[in-house]
Amino acid sequence: MKEFQLKYGCNPNQKPSRIYMNDGSELPVTVLNGRPGYINFLDAFNGWQLVRELKEATGLPAATSFKHVSPAGAAVGLPLTDVERKIYWVDDMGELSPLASAYARARGADRMSSFGDFISLSDVCDVSTAKIVKREVSDGIIAPGYEPEALEILKAKKKGNYNIIQIDADYRPNPIEHKEVFGITFEQGRNELKIDNELLSNVVTENKEIPDSAKIDLIISLITLKYTQSNSVCYAKGGQAIGIGAGQQSRIHCTRLAGQKADNWFLRQCPKVLELQFVDKIGRADRDNAIDLYIGDDYMDVLADGAWEKIFKVKPEVFTKEEKRAWLDNMQDVALGSDAFFPFGDNIERAHKSGVKYVAQPGGSIRDDNVIETCNKYNMAMCFTGIRLFHH
Known about the structure:
The protein is of the alpha/beta class. It has 14 helices and 15 strands. It is globular, with a radius of gyration of 21 Å. The model has no long low-confidence stretch (mean pLDDT 96).
């Protein structure tokens, strides 16, 4: 397949639309089912690069959940705790493969943002992973291969129209890439930067201790940022991104947005949330939306008389601001990555509220001393990578 005709571009009025290789060679992908669109392919190719690099850096199967050319979640295949199985809605699925665990984490980090995602997997899609995908609202998937039974499960989604792409795992693009904007061609060298433990060696704070588990989380955050629309900040813990703030003009807004998502991830683990009693046959999206409202400031949208009866069997008590803060104070050892330097210590102050203990950022601000001082105040360990990770 040397080219693939798309239904339209980013929007229905943008025609014609296709993908092809400039040198006339075969595309490195095969569409096994469905008809992926322009944005689907953008998500697929960015997501594939992300999971391939996560697998290379950690040696673990990796998955990511993309929406509008930024990841909503990314993770490696570490086992899930009982609580994680509950908040990711896979506690009824028995034993999961490492790849399935990776996708459960990636999808579960920010379920609101992952609704209708495009999935990327580092390894051949197995039946365990396909069964999770089957029950979620998703636009498509890309992987280096599919087990026969897994492929049949996926083909049955969306009345047989689910987008399934297979990519050649050995494909390597030209080291020079091009992009056209307003009829003008941009050219640059591909960002082939390898992200590994060596980037974490320049620890500039009084606390120099970064355990191996935190290094994995920092690497996950940095690789995730490499394929997230800038400005961007990523919180990570336990082998997965737990909060991604993408495409903000101000870095503190990235840190706040990602921090709020990380907080929501942790609040969902509170017994008060785990014990919510939903009405029978409530839709998965309706349940996720109700939880998001319940733990947020607009909780009365689901607790008001006439509203809660449609969602819950028993009216829940208000999850007070004081209770939420007390629970969040238990969140510890979170890792934080930033795609460019922190210009002020306020980013660290906000990160501290979400349990951040380890930080990786390029450094190079004229206020680096202030940022380091703020980290020292909270006994955080921060490394300067010296590398910026802007992505557009």
